[in-house]
UniProtKB/TrEMBL annotation:
GO biological process entries: nervous system development; potassium ion import across plasma membrane; regulation of monoatomic ion transmembrane transport
A Pfam short name: IRK_C
Domain (Inward rectifier potassium channel C-terminal) ranges: 189-359
Entry keyword Nucleotide-binding: no
Keywords for this protein: Ion channel, Ion transport, Membrane, Phosphoprotein, Potassium, Potassium transport, Transmembrane, Transmembrane helix, Transport, Voltage-gated channel
Gene label: KCNJ6
InterPro entries: Ig_E-set, IRK_C, K_chnl_inward-rec_Kir, K_chnl_inward-rec_Kir3.2, K_chnl_inward-rec_Kir_cyto, Kir_TM
Limits of the Potassium channel inwardly rectifying transmembrane domain: 43-182
GO molecular function: G-protein activated inward rectifier potassium channel activity
Record's protein name: G protein-activated inward rectifier potassium channel 2
Membrane topology category: Multi-pass membrane protein
């Protein structure tokens, strides 16, 4: 389909375009092809999941956990609800105070010194609204005071005081949790823009770098990695975005990080790795994504923090290593974050880890044969006569053991018959 679209455009427009435009046209087509092959991320580089929940029928579940719902809202909606809740409660209780004054007739005896109102100096809805604010916020200027001749006013005062305390605890707690969310702490946890594949200790490894920009450390930091790739089972079932764990040191404890300086996280490509049979040529054709998750507790608040990032196929560089960032200065170590994302090319075989392991095995076999041949040539191995003699001795010893066993069996049978 792409050939049908591109070929007429090139043939019809080529004679009419200037030379510079004709030279730029293939580049534009290449960019279009690359854009079409662009992988849709499951997790963005900033750690946000690129998943939208649609057609949720049971929306009432959000109201059952209203506190978490308010915390998860954006700041503009959260502040709007914060102001709205306080304003509505002040207006409702202000209307209640005005209604009590209206029913009792306090508004008709304004300025009458012989009349004892429910609230002194309450002469309208505005003054009732101000008295509601003073009551709920416990300001108490002293100008408007409730009297002891109004039992319904005393009851309303108790109700507003209790409900006002609940509203304060709920809204202030919501704002405190939103302000102190550990998501902001994750902003200073950085991941390298690229992951690399190179040889380390004779084995292919996939590596990426993590670092912490703050001086306050992440306590009990741990790292995880997952491969996101669609698969089809043997039964024909298609599983979109299947998640596979990648071992980054779980069995050895290397996944527990002491994140004081930037660290290179290594995934060894062995038989249990999903990259075991993937070569450099195969990697360019794969449609996969690696999601890395860094977790730990914030030292200042003790809250759990999680930072995420991902690497798609185009961000996995085969045959590269990370540049060193740690240098020893006069009495301290210095980290150069300008080189945090820098990589350099290194000699790396383009074959898969499985093929590399097979080549290493074949390379070791001739060495074993040559050692055995050299030992036989030097007379270290026993001569044929000595081997035959030792073999005869072993056969004789085995026959003697068999005869002794038969004799023991006969004696045991005779003893059993005599007992009977």
């Amino acid at each position: 389909m792409e050939q049908d679209v591109e070929s007429p455009a090139v043939t019809t427009r080529k004679p009419k375009l200037p030379k510079q435009a004709r030279e730029d046209l293939p580049k534009q087509l290449v960019d279009q092809v690359r854009a079409k092959r662009k992988i849709q991320r499951y997790v963005r580089k900033d750690g946000k999941c690129n998943v939208h929940h649609g057609n949720v029928q049971e929306t009432y579940r959000y109201l059952t956990d209203i506190f978490t719902t308010l915390v998860d809202l954006k700041w503009r909606f959260n502040l709007f609800i914060f102001v709205l809740v306080y304003t509505v409660t002040w207006l409702l209780f202000g209307f209640a105070w005005w209604l009590i004054a209206y029913v009792r007739g306090d508004l008709e005896h304004i300025g009458d010194n012989q009349w004892t109102p429910c609230v002194n100096n309450l002469n309208g809805f505005v003054s009732a609204f101000l008295f509601s604010i003073e009551t709920e916020t416990t300001i108490g200027y002293g100008y408007r005071v409730i009297t002891d001749q109004c039992p319904e006013g005393i009851l309303l005062l108790l109700i507003q005081s209790v409900l006002g305390s609940i509203v304060n605890a709920f809204m202030v707690g919501c704002m405190f949790v939103k302000i102190s969310q550990p998501k902001k702490r994750a902003e200073t946890l950085v991941f390298s823009t690229s992951a690399v594949i190179s040889v380390r200790d004779g084995r292919l490894c996939l590596m990426f770098r993590v670092g912490d920009l703050r001086n306050s450390h992440i306590v009990e930091a741990s790292i995880r990695a997952k491969l996101i790739k669609s698969k089809q089972t043997k039964e024909g079932e298609f599983i979109p975005l299947n998640q596979t764990d990648m071992n980054v040191g779980y069995d050895t404890g290397d996944d527990r990080l002491f994140l004081v300086s930037p660290l290179i996280i290594c995934h060894e490509i062995n038989q249990n790795s999903p990259f075991w049979e993937i070569s450099q040529a195969d990697l360019d054709k794969e449609d996969l994504e690696i999601v890395v998750i860094l977790e730990g507790m914030v030292e200042a608040t003790g809250m759990t923090c999680q930072a995420r990032s991902s690497y798609v196929t185009s961000e996995i560089k085969w045959g590269y290593r990370f540049m060193p960032v740690l240098t020893l200065e006069d009495g301290f170590y210095e980290v150069d974050y300008n080189s945090f994302h820098d990589i350099h090319e290194t000699n790396t075989p383009s074959c898969s880890a499985r093929e590399l392991a097979e080549m290493n095995c074949r390379a070791r076999l001739p060495l074993t044969w040559s050692v055995a041949s050299k030992l036989s040539q030097q007379g270290v191995l026993e001569p044929e006569g000595r081997e035959k003699k030792s073999t005869t001795t072993l056969i004789t010893q085995e026959e003697g053991l068999e005869e002794q066993t038969e004799r023991n069996g006969d004696i045991a049978n005779i003893e059993s018959e005599s007992k009977v």
